[in-house]
């Protein structure tokens, strides 16, 4: 996660002078703003402008604000697949009014892994969970198209990551 920090004053004067900050360096929002102040120490009371960002859901950053959730991610999301977690946050939208640890728990329950296609995931799920319970003489009658169409109502697929929507 990165953000480009400039100021409105510089921008209004025709300059986009600023700096890219790697947000993994910060676990507290106050430390982030302290670094922003150091970058723009040439201004008395800089009004920060986040002119660009990478790998941050749009619900967590805007031109003039950044959510504390970004820093909670750095603090609490150490052993999770960060790319998948960011996809999940993009899917569920704003989480500012929710307990962050609860969101992490929901993610862990909802995440089903990384797959090349949703079809590959549905075939795997069916073969692992359902097929062993069906007598072998009926295996040739199984419609993977039907399985795929049924499961897509309960799962969300984004950039190779699969999430259960009912979990």
Provide a compact summary of the structure.
Helix content is 40%, strand content 17%. It is α+β, with helices and mostly antiparallel strands and 167 residues long. It has 2 domains: 76 residues, no CATH class; 90 residues, no CATH class.
Characteristic terms for this protein:
167 residues; alpha+beta; 2 domains; three-stranded antiparallel β-sheet
Describe the fold and architecture.
By secondary structure, the chain is α+β, with helices and mostly antiparallel strands. The protein has 2 domains: 1-76, no CATH class; 78-167, no CATH class. It contains 7 helices and 6 strands; from the N terminus they run E-H-E-H-E-H-H-H-E-H-H-E-E. The protein has helices at residues 8-12, 29-39, 69-76, 82-92, 100-110, 118-130, 144-151; strands at residues 2-7, 19-22, 48-54, 111-114, 155-158, 161-164. A 3-stranded antiparallel sheet has the order 2-1-3. The protein has a 3-stranded antiparallel sheet with strand order 4-6-5. Strand 5 (155-158) and strand 6 form a beta hairpin. The chain is elongated and about 80 Å long. The model has no long low-confidence stretch (mean pLDDT 88).
